[in-house]
Amino acid sequence: MKKVIFILALLFISVTNSYSQFGLSKGQLDIAFNANWKGLFTNFSAASSNCNTIHTGAYTGVIVANVGNVPNIPFYCLDLCTGISLGDSIVDSASSIPEAIYIANNFYPATLNVLPDVNEEACAVQMAVWHFRNALVIANVTMDGTTNDAAIRARAQTIINQTIANSGSSVHVTTIEIKPAGNPDNFYIRTLDTAGNPIAVNNIQLSISGGGSLSTITVNTDGTGNSPDVIVTGAANNSLIKATAMVQIPAGITYSGLLAIKQLLVLGKTTTGLRTATLLWGALPVELSSFISAVNGNDVTLNWSTVSESNNSGFDIERSVSGSTDWTKVGYSVGFGSSNTSHNYSFTNRNLSSGKYNYRLKQIDYNGNFEYHNLINEITIGVPVEFNLSQNYPNPFNPSTKIDFDIPNEGFVTLKIFNTSGIEVASLVNEIVTSGYHSINFNAVNLASGIYYYRLQTKDFTKVMKMALVK
């Protein structure tokens, strides 16, 4: 099969502004504040972030843009250190961080606000994003025009704690892809929703430029998410094949401003638009010297090194279950651009269930081109050698926390929550559980603040641990 490079970009319809050739997904920030901008103005010292800048009256909250002439699309700023101008044009960008993806999918405006004032909720969410990107110290932030500073800071810290506990594998789902078929000169289209489930999509438009022809210029995918094979005839080196369809665009995907300062904006909630996947014949100039793995319990650590790099934006880390051809993005590592020296990378995929897995790296350049590097060995996550119940995290928590437990032998398991009077307030597990490493989330939204106990019990093992709910 010919070696191919894939590019993924976005395209929204009905764009009337004039744009430079920077990207395929375009929009424009609102030219002035309006009722759809939800947030507050904040102040913090130079020592409060890695920007080393005093911020006075910094807008902290939802930023509104028109994307493809669809108004009021919400974004958050990814980078506190970089400014952006009202009315700036924005385009899609390849960079992001897992924490921003998790926040955009699990907090306002993707979900209802928790704080009574939506402006305060949006302010807390933006502060949490800046904490991960710019090491913002939440305790040092004060809000203009409000006396509810403590509640807003507490909400931001809750978002941070939940993100730390859950964002390790937060990734974007590629909702349209061009996939190689069994015949080396054929391909097919695969479409997914933002949860990674196959979805049928009609009227997918295909084209080829730079030489060659396609057996059809329109395909549909069915309930499996796959289209019939498309035959490529006479494609030259660097011929470009495009597939465009109306699909979901996941919350957390990033856009860049087009003015002199390239601010990155995070899409605040999942929306729908034309998305274009592109396939290019060619090769990428990044050479790996090693790619190895290590297993610790139910965690897998991947380490790889490059000899040299040219135009390297970074690496997606992808995982598949043994025997499956479906790959899932589980992480991302930023590249070093262009460099003639060796660089080392590391990524840990945590809390895996027992089973066998394969891993690969998807190396991406700044133009969106990519190629794959496969881990030679298969990873096996075994079963624990003994029962164990771990301390919940985060602790203290509000209102959700995660409890991990290890089961070496299949059997009946209960995991229950008790108050200080010994009264059962929740039953999280009450069934036969297979051997392996397990994790369960506990939501105490209906419980009062205080100390609680959780007990794991099996035929051969009982353990009780304490946790604190602070609202």
- Quote the distance from N terminus to C terminus: 58 Å
- Percent of residues in β-strands: over 45%
Averaged pLDDT: 85
Report the biggest beta sheet as strand number plus sense, adding barrel if it closes. 7 strands, antiparallel
Helix segment count? 3
Shape: globular
Q: Which value, in Å, is the CA radius of gyration? A: 24 Å
Number of domains: 3
The helical percent reads: under 10%
Low-pLDDT residue spans: 1-24
**Number of beta strands:** 32
By helix and strand content, what is the structural category?
Answer: mainly beta
Strand and helix layout:
Layout: E1 4-10, E2 26-29, E3 39-44, E4 55-61, E5 63-67, E6 70-77, E7 89-93, H1 98-106, H2 118-134, E8 142-143, H3 149-166, E9 176-180, E10 186-191, E11 204-209, E12 213-214, E13 218-219, E14 230-233, E15 240-249, E16 254-257, E17 264-267, E18 271-281, E19 286-296, E20 299-321, E21 328-339, E22 343-349, E23 355-365, E24 370-374, E25 379-381, E26 388-389, E27 400-407, E28 411-419, E29 424-433, E30 436-443, E31 450-457, E32 462-469
Antiparallel strand pairs: 1-18, 2-5, 2-7, 3-4, 3-8, 5-6, 6-17, 7-16, 9-10, 10-14, 11-13, 11-15, 12-14, 15-18, 16-17, 19-20, 20-21, 20-22, 20-23, 23-24, 23-25, 26-27, 27-30, 28-29, 28-31, 31-32
